[in-house]
Amino acid sequence: MSKSKGNIVTQEEISKKYGIDTARLFLMFVSSPDKQMEWTDKGVEGSFRIINKLINLKEKISNESDEKEESKINLTIKEVSENIEKFEYPKSIIAITKAIDSLSEKISKKNYEILLKLMSPFCPHITEELWHALGNKTFISLEKWPEADESKINPELEKQEQQIETAISDINNIIKILESRKELKDKKKVKIFAIPNEVSLYSKAKTQIEKRVNFKVEVSNVQEASKTGKSIKAKPGKPGILIE
């Protein structure tokens, strides 16, 4: 970009439309000492969505946390801290985004405050505002950095979380293919056919999956797939998927 060619994008333009924290988050996400930065409107809008997810998560604050939440928050602290020390800011932002998506249904006040602290180096203005909205009188920028309790990180729960993320990614890829073929219009439901000992896993994540794919979701044992008249198979960590 250059002024002479008239193709620059100023901070003022982004700030007026999205807020300056969006510009900051986007720049931290795409910046790398050994790579050139590529400006994209989609990237800015993606950063704006991440901030809005963080804001909306405030409405999901609950009184208690569970094992899954504690595992996810402590893993996030560990990953973000390690990546910031190595100046790998994009990886830190990805870790925070994954935590926000994972905890979109509920989060304890303590853990929400931890997420705000982890996000504050990237989005100092909105995190400070949210910090005070929770009733805190101090400045988040002066708060002690969170420390991970690695004893609370459960690899099995994280593995299950990754399985859900993989399923969501597979579903969205199928949706894109159907959309490109103009075959999506009459589709109303996503059917997930899992092996018997994984049916419960996908059933518990049903609401989470529905929000991420924007379709109603039905989870069944893969043995039920034969009733569809289609050749649908499933294996550990990889359920069969049908959109109809």
Brief summary:
It is built from 10 helices and 5 strands; from the N terminus they run H-H-H-E-H-H-E-H-H-H-E-H-H-E-E. The protein is mainly alpha-helical and 244 residues long.
What does this structure look like?
This protein has 10 helices and 5 strands. With 244 residues, the protein is mainly alpha-helical. It is globular, with a radius of gyration of 20 Å.
What's the SSE blueprint?
Layout: H1 11-18, H2 20-30, H3 41-57, E1 61-62, H4 67-85, H5 89-102, E2 107-108, H6 109-119, H7 124-133, H8 155-180, E3 189-194, H9 199-204, H10 206-213, E4 216-221, E5 240-243
Parallel strand pairs: 1-2, 3-4
Antiparallel strand pairs: 3-5
Helix pairs in contact: 1-2, 2-3, 2-5, 4-5, 4-6, 6-7
CATH level-four homologous superfamily name of the largest domain? Isoleucyl-tRNA Synthetase, Domain 1
Estimate percent helicity.
40-55%
The CATH topology assignment of the largest domain is Isoleucyl-tRNA Synthetase, Domain 1
How would you spell out the order of helices and strands?
HHHEHHEHHHEHHEE
| Biggest sheet record | 3 strands, mixed
Q: Number of helix segments?
A: 10
Secondary structure: number of strands: 5
Gross morphology is globular
Euclidean distance between termini CA atoms: 45 Å
Specify Rg, calculated over alpha carbons: 20 Å
Poorly predicted tracts of residues: 1-7
Broad CATH class of the largest domain: Mainly Alpha
